[in-house]
Amino acid sequence: MNKLIIASILISTSLVADVIWLEEAPMRMNWDKAMKYCEDKGAILPSKKVFQEIWYKNNRASDVEGFDLSVSYWTRDEVLDNKKYAAYPFYFVQGRDTWYYKADKYGVRCIKKAN
Q1: How far apart are CA 57 and CA 18, in angstroms?
Q2: Residue 34 is part of a domain; what is its CATH number?
Q3: Cβ pair 86, 101 in contact under 8 A
Q4: To bridge 72 with a disulfide, which of 7, 87, 89, 111 should be the other Cys (CB 3.0-4.6 Å)?
Q5: What is the domain count for the chain?
């Protein structure tokens, strides 16, 4: 007699489910300093996809709890054809991630993987 065993596997595709958000940095900084700031805290800058997921999960609201409405936050994503000079900040008001120069100063929120 053959038995068929069916296993159910739940795979989480959420990018934000397993991360801990650190408090916002006390000052705006350029991209290189933002990367170093997060590294010094044992963390990383979030990707554009992480910010987009938060924005979509909050019904595209500009006032997501824990994030300053008026601030664009650096992501770790660089502009592929201009990595030396350009990266993407994320702006919650419009859910926008247009590239800007790395020398520009934006807000910083670092993330760590939850254990």
Answers
A1: 15
A2: 3.10.100.10
A3: yes
A4: 89
A5: 1
